[in-house]
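Your task
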Amino acid sequence: MVATGGAIVGDSIGYELGRCLGRPWLERHGRLVGMHGGVLARVDALFARHGGKAVLIGRFVGFLRAMAPFVAGASCMPYRRFLCYNALGGVMWAAVLVLLGYFLGESWTVAERWIGRVGLVIGVIVIAAAAWWVHRARQRQGAKPATPA
């Protein structure tokens, strides 16, 4: 219960930081984490369509766990929607970790290995999906007819 509460509160703080610092901060410093001008527009569109899923899945992927709440706030995702997915992700994340600890007992090396593998697989899937999405968006842009000058 404490882990769930901490996860939800922590991501809510990240959301508020994203909402307050938001777009100007990402435009100035986003290049440090790969969020430069063109990417920001695509991220906004992604969060408009799939923001809840990104927050939920992001809970289980290290890099996304830190970035998803901030970007959700910066992308003006409605807080109620964010909170629903944040709470669901926090409950699931805490339950998974507690159950892993319970079933694996003192075999933390085994747990660490499996958590790393699962995180890697999810990370690869997320990166592949993002690359596919960017590829499709570029294809759509290239398929637009040229406007006469």
Summary: DSSP finds five helices and no strands in the chain.
